[in-house]
TrEMBL record:
Homology family: Belongs to the short-chain dehydrogenases/reductases (SDR) family.
Record-linked InterPro entries: NAD(P)-bd_dom_sf (IPR036291), SDR (IPR050259), SDR_fam (IPR002347)
Pfam name, any one: adh_short_C2
Native source species: Pelomonas cellulosilytica
Transmembrane stretches, start-end: none
Name of the protein in its database record: SDR family oxidoreductase
Amino acid sequence: MDLGLKGRWALVCAASKGLGRGCAEALVGEGVNVVITARGEADLQVTAEALRMLNAAAEVRAVAGDIATEAGRAAALAACPQVDILVNNAGGPPPGDFRDWGREQWLAAVEANMLAPIELMKATVDAMAERGFGRVVNITSGAVKAPIDTLGLSNGARSGLTGFVAGLARQPRLAGANVTINNLLPGAFDTDRLRSNFSAAAAKAGVPVDELAARRRAAIPAQRFGTAAEFGAVCAMLCSVHAGYLTGQNVLLDGGSYPGTF
Ligand code: NAP
Protein backbone atom coordinates (compact mmCIF):
# COMPACT_ATOMS: atom_id res chain seq x y z
CA MET A 1 0.00 0.00 0.00
CA ASP A 2 1.32 3.46 -0.88
CA LEU A 3 1.15 5.49 2.33
CA GLY A 4 0.91 8.70 0.32
CA LEU A 5 3.71 10.43 2.18
CA LYS A 6 6.32 11.03 -0.54
CA GLY A 7 7.89 14.48 -0.30
CA ARG A 8 6.47 15.26 3.14
CA TRP A 9 8.78 16.57 5.90
CA ALA A 10 9.02 14.85 9.28
CA LEU A 11 10.74 15.86 12.48
CA VAL A 12 11.68 12.65 14.27
CA CYS A 13 13.03 13.37 17.75
CA ALA A 14 15.56 11.21 19.59
CA ALA A 15 16.23 9.08 16.55
CA SER A 16 19.89 8.03 16.44
CA LYS A 17 18.94 4.68 17.96
CA GLY A 18 16.09 2.44 18.98
CA LEU A 19 12.43 3.24 18.40
CA GLY A 20 13.01 6.78 17.07
CA ARG A 21 15.45 5.44 14.51
CA GLY A 22 12.95 2.73 13.55
CA CYS A 23 10.36 5.44 12.86
CA ALA A 24 12.84 7.49 10.81
CA GLU A 25 13.79 4.43 8.75
CA ALA A 26 10.17 3.58 7.98
CA LEU A 27 9.35 7.17 6.98
CA VAL A 28 12.46 7.54 4.81
CA GLY A 29 11.52 4.24 3.19
CA GLU A 30 8.21 5.89 2.23
CA GLY A 31 10.02 8.85 0.63
CA VAL A 32 9.58 11.26 3.55
CA ASN A 33 12.31 13.88 4.10
CA VAL A 34 13.41 13.82 7.73
CA VAL A 35 15.12 15.88 10.38
CA ILE A 36 16.46 13.56 13.05
CA THR A 37 17.79 14.59 16.46
CA ALA A 38 19.80 13.13 19.34
CA ARG A 39 22.26 14.54 21.85
CA GLY A 40 25.27 12.51 20.69
CA GLU A 41 26.58 13.91 17.40
CA ALA A 42 28.68 10.90 16.32
CA ASP A 43 25.90 8.27 16.50
CA LEU A 44 23.45 10.73 14.98
CA GLN A 45 25.65 11.30 11.92
CA VAL A 46 26.13 7.53 11.45
CA THR A 47 22.34 7.06 11.53
CA ALA A 48 21.80 9.96 9.12
CA GLU A 49 24.21 8.37 6.66
CA ALA A 50 22.44 5.00 6.97
CA LEU A 51 19.09 6.69 6.29
CA ARG A 52 20.50 8.38 3.15
CA MET A 53 21.64 4.96 1.90
CA LEU A 54 18.11 3.65 2.47
CA ASN A 55 16.46 6.04 0.03
CA ALA A 56 18.46 8.52 -2.05
CA ALA A 57 15.23 10.34 -2.96
CA ALA A 58 14.65 11.43 0.65
CA GLU A 59 16.54 14.32 2.21
CA VAL A 60 17.98 13.61 5.64
CA ARG A 61 19.12 16.33 8.03
CA ALA A 62 20.68 15.67 11.43
CA VAL A 63 20.54 18.16 14.29
CA ALA A 64 22.40 17.35 17.50
CA GLY A 65 20.78 18.67 20.66
CA ASP A 66 18.75 17.88 23.73
CA ILE A 67 15.07 17.87 22.76
CA ALA A 68 14.15 18.46 26.41
CA THR A 69 15.62 21.97 26.13
CA GLU A 70 14.26 25.04 24.39
CA ALA A 71 17.50 25.45 22.41
CA GLY A 72 17.41 21.82 21.26
CA ARG A 73 13.82 22.17 20.05
CA ALA A 74 14.48 25.50 18.32
CA ALA A 75 17.44 24.04 16.40
CA ALA A 76 15.41 20.99 15.32
CA LEU A 77 12.47 23.11 14.16
CA ALA A 78 14.76 25.53 12.28
CA ALA A 79 16.19 22.65 10.24
CA CYS A 80 12.76 21.45 9.05
CA PRO A 81 11.28 23.52 6.19
CA GLN A 82 7.80 22.55 7.36
CA VAL A 83 6.71 19.93 9.84
CA ASP A 84 4.06 17.70 8.24
CA ILE A 85 4.83 14.81 10.58
CA LEU A 86 6.07 15.12 14.14
CA VAL A 87 7.34 12.07 15.99
CA ASN A 88 7.87 13.03 19.62
CA ASN A 89 10.39 10.98 21.52
CA ALA A 90 13.08 11.36 24.19
CA GLY A 91 15.01 9.05 26.45
CA GLY A 92 12.97 7.51 29.24
CA PRO A 93 13.52 8.46 32.88
CA PRO A 94 15.67 6.17 35.05
CA PRO A 95 14.11 3.38 37.11
CA GLY A 96 14.09 3.59 40.89
CA ASP A 97 12.02 4.06 44.02
CA PHE A 98 9.92 7.19 44.45
CA ARG A 99 11.31 7.58 47.97
CA ASP A 100 14.66 8.45 46.43
CA TRP A 101 13.41 11.02 43.91
CA GLY A 102 13.31 14.73 44.60
CA ARG A 103 11.93 17.69 42.71
CA GLU A 104 14.92 17.71 40.34
CA GLN A 105 14.30 14.15 39.10
CA TRP A 106 10.58 14.81 38.68
CA LEU A 107 11.18 18.02 36.74
CA ALA A 108 13.66 16.28 34.43
CA ALA A 109 11.10 13.56 33.65
CA VAL A 110 8.31 16.08 33.10
CA GLU A 111 10.56 18.25 30.87
CA ALA A 112 11.59 15.33 28.65
CA ASN A 113 8.48 13.17 28.55
CA MET A 114 5.64 15.67 28.89
CA LEU A 115 6.60 19.30 28.24
CA ALA A 116 8.98 18.76 25.30
CA PRO A 117 6.31 17.01 23.18
CA ILE A 118 3.71 19.60 24.23
CA GLU A 119 6.02 22.47 23.20
CA LEU A 120 6.72 20.83 19.85
CA MET A 121 3.02 20.29 19.20
CA LYS A 122 2.39 23.92 20.12
CA ALA A 123 5.00 24.98 17.56
CA THR A 124 3.63 22.86 14.73
CA VAL A 125 -0.02 21.78 14.82
CA ASP A 126 -1.71 25.06 13.86
CA ALA A 127 0.45 25.35 10.73
CA MET A 128 -0.38 21.72 9.92
CA ALA A 129 -4.07 22.60 10.18
CA GLU A 130 -3.66 25.58 7.84
CA ARG A 131 -2.07 23.26 5.25
CA GLY A 132 -4.80 20.63 5.75
CA PHE A 133 -2.49 17.78 6.68
CA GLY A 134 -0.62 16.85 9.84
CA ARG A 135 0.35 13.77 11.79
CA VAL A 136 1.72 13.66 15.32
CA VAL A 137 2.88 10.42 16.90
CA ASN A 138 4.02 10.57 20.51
CA ILE A 139 6.17 7.65 21.60
CA THR A 140 5.04 6.99 25.18
CA SER A 141 4.95 3.60 26.90
CA GLY A 142 2.78 0.63 27.74
CA ALA A 143 3.36 1.88 31.31
CA VAL A 144 0.63 4.46 30.63
CA LYS A 145 -1.96 1.65 30.56
CA ALA A 146 -0.30 -0.75 32.98
CA PRO A 147 2.17 1.05 35.25
CA ILE A 148 5.58 -0.50 35.86
CA ASP A 149 6.48 -0.23 39.55
CA THR A 150 10.13 0.75 39.10
CA LEU A 151 9.38 3.29 36.36
CA GLY A 152 7.32 5.70 38.47
CA LEU A 153 8.83 8.78 36.80
CA SER A 154 7.78 7.43 33.42
CA ASN A 155 4.30 6.36 34.65
CA GLY A 156 3.68 9.83 36.03
CA ALA A 157 5.15 12.13 33.36
CA ARG A 158 3.76 10.18 30.42
CA SER A 159 0.29 10.00 31.94
CA GLY A 160 0.33 13.81 32.05
CA LEU A 161 1.15 13.93 28.34
CA THR A 162 -1.52 11.33 27.59
CA GLY A 163 -4.23 13.30 29.37
CA PHE A 164 -3.24 16.49 27.58
CA VAL A 165 -3.20 14.81 24.15
CA ALA A 166 -6.64 13.31 24.74
CA GLY A 167 -8.04 16.83 24.83
CA LEU A 168 -5.85 18.43 22.16
CA ALA A 169 -6.45 15.74 19.53
CA ARG A 170 -10.19 16.34 19.80
CA GLN A 171 -10.10 20.05 19.06
CA PRO A 172 -12.23 20.50 15.91
CA ARG A 173 -9.76 23.06 14.52
CA LEU A 174 -7.18 20.23 14.42
CA ALA A 175 -9.20 17.03 13.94
CA GLY A 176 -11.41 18.87 11.43
CA ALA A 177 -8.36 19.96 9.43
CA ASN A 178 -6.85 16.50 8.91
CA VAL A 179 -4.39 16.84 11.78
CA THR A 180 -4.23 13.65 13.82
CA ILE A 181 -2.47 13.19 17.15
CA ASN A 182 -1.93 9.71 18.52
CA ASN A 183 0.26 8.02 21.08
CA LEU A 184 2.18 4.85 20.26
CA LEU A 185 2.77 2.76 23.39
CA PRO A 186 5.71 0.35 23.22
CA GLY A 187 5.77 -2.78 25.33
CA ALA A 188 9.18 -4.48 25.41
CA PHE A 189 11.33 -3.67 22.37
CA ASP A 190 14.87 -4.88 21.87
CA THR A 191 16.77 -1.58 22.17
CA ASP A 192 19.59 -0.13 24.28
CA ARG A 193 16.98 1.23 26.69
CA LEU A 194 15.49 -2.23 27.30
CA ARG A 195 18.94 -3.76 27.77
CA SER A 196 19.99 -1.11 30.29
CA ASN A 197 16.72 -1.50 32.23
CA PHE A 198 17.34 -5.27 32.32
CA SER A 199 20.89 -4.76 33.59
CA ALA A 200 19.61 -2.59 36.46
CA ALA A 201 16.79 -5.03 37.30
CA ALA A 202 19.12 -8.06 37.14
CA ALA A 203 21.64 -6.40 39.45
CA LYS A 204 18.88 -5.54 41.92
CA ALA A 205 17.41 -9.07 41.84
CA GLY A 206 20.86 -10.70 41.94
CA VAL A 207 20.24 -12.82 38.80
CA PRO A 208 22.23 -12.98 35.55
CA VAL A 209 20.89 -10.51 32.96
CA ASP A 210 20.35 -13.28 30.37
CA GLU A 211 18.16 -15.19 32.82
CA LEU A 212 16.09 -12.11 33.58
CA ALA A 213 15.70 -11.34 29.87
CA ALA A 214 14.60 -14.93 29.17
CA ARG A 215 11.97 -14.72 31.93
CA ARG A 216 10.64 -11.44 30.57
CA ARG A 217 10.52 -12.83 27.04
CA ALA A 218 8.61 -15.90 28.19
CA ALA A 219 6.02 -13.67 29.90
CA ILE A 220 5.11 -11.98 26.59
CA PRO A 221 2.39 -13.82 24.64
CA ALA A 222 4.38 -13.25 21.41
CA GLN A 223 7.34 -14.95 23.18
CA ARG A 224 9.78 -12.32 21.96
CA PHE A 225 10.67 -8.67 22.18
CA GLY A 226 9.51 -6.31 19.46
CA THR A 227 11.88 -4.82 16.89
CA ALA A 228 12.43 -1.16 16.08
CA ALA A 229 11.49 -1.93 12.46
CA GLU A 230 8.06 -3.23 13.57
CA PHE A 231 7.57 -0.15 15.69
CA GLY A 232 8.57 2.14 12.81
CA ALA A 233 6.18 0.41 10.41
CA VAL A 234 3.19 1.08 12.69
CA CYS A 235 4.34 4.67 13.18
CA ALA A 236 4.46 5.18 9.40
CA MET A 237 0.99 3.64 9.09
CA LEU A 238 -0.37 6.12 11.67
CA CYS A 239 1.22 8.92 9.62
CA SER A 240 -0.23 7.73 6.32
CA VAL A 241 -2.88 9.55 4.32
CA HIS A 242 -5.16 6.58 5.02
CA ALA A 243 -5.16 7.17 8.79
CA GLY A 244 -6.91 10.55 8.76
CA TYR A 245 -9.87 9.29 10.82
CA LEU A 246 -7.68 7.82 13.56
CA THR A 247 -6.98 10.42 16.21
CA GLY A 248 -6.69 10.77 19.99
CA GLN A 249 -5.84 7.08 20.37
CA ASN A 250 -3.37 5.19 22.51
CA VAL A 251 -2.08 2.42 20.29
CA LEU A 252 -0.46 -0.36 22.28
CA LEU A 253 2.27 -2.35 20.55
CA ASP A 254 3.30 -5.03 23.02
CA GLY A 255 3.06 -8.55 21.61
CA GLY A 256 -0.12 -9.13 23.62
CA SER A 257 1.35 -8.28 27.04
CA TYR A 258 -1.46 -6.03 28.24
CA PRO A 259 -3.97 -8.48 29.72
CA GLY A 260 -7.19 -6.46 29.39
CA THR A 261 -9.98 -6.95 26.85
CA PHE A 262 -10.07 -3.22 26.05
P1 NAP B 1 17.18 3.98 23.17
O1 NAP B 1 17.43 2.76 22.37
O2 NAP B 1 17.98 4.20 24.41
O3 NAP B 1 17.33 5.25 22.18
C1 NAP B 1 17.08 6.52 22.67
C2 NAP B 1 17.36 7.54 21.57
O4 NAP B 1 16.93 8.81 22.02
C3 NAP B 1 18.84 7.68 21.26
O5 NAP B 1 18.96 8.03 19.90
C4 NAP B 1 19.26 8.85 22.15
O6 NAP B 1 20.43 9.46 21.67
C5 NAP B 1 18.03 9.74 22.01
N1 NAP B 1 17.77 10.66 23.13
C6 NAP B 1 17.62 10.32 24.43
N2 NAP B 1 17.36 11.42 25.16
C7 NAP B 1 17.34 12.47 24.29
C8 NAP B 1 17.13 13.85 24.44
N3 NAP B 1 16.88 14.40 25.64
N4 NAP B 1 17.18 14.65 23.34
C9 NAP B 1 17.43 14.11 22.13
N5 NAP B 1 17.63 12.80 21.93
C10 NAP B 1 17.60 11.97 23.00
O7 NAP B 1 15.66 4.05 23.67
P2 NAP B 1 14.34 3.38 23.04
O8 NAP B 1 14.21 1.99 23.58
O9 NAP B 1 14.30 3.61 21.59
O10 NAP B 1 13.21 4.22 23.79
C11 NAP B 1 12.61 5.37 23.23
C12 NAP B 1 11.53 5.83 24.20
O11 NAP B 1 10.55 4.80 24.34
C13 NAP B 1 12.06 6.12 25.60
O12 NAP B 1 11.40 7.20 26.16
C14 NAP B 1 11.73 4.83 26.35
O13 NAP B 1 11.58 5.05 27.74
C15 NAP B 1 10.39 4.48 25.70
N6 NAP B 1 10.07 3.06 25.86
C16 NAP B 1 10.88 2.10 25.37
C17 NAP B 1 10.55 0.76 25.55
C18 NAP B 1 11.42 -0.35 25.04
O14 NAP B 1 11.13 -1.52 25.31
N7 NAP B 1 12.48 -0.10 24.31
C19 NAP B 1 9.37 0.44 26.24
C20 NAP B 1 8.56 1.45 26.72
C21 NAP B 1 8.91 2.76 26.54
P3 NAP B 1 21.38 10.33 22.66
O15 NAP B 1 21.54 9.53 23.90
O16 NAP B 1 22.64 10.51 21.88
O17 NAP B 1 20.66 11.61 22.88
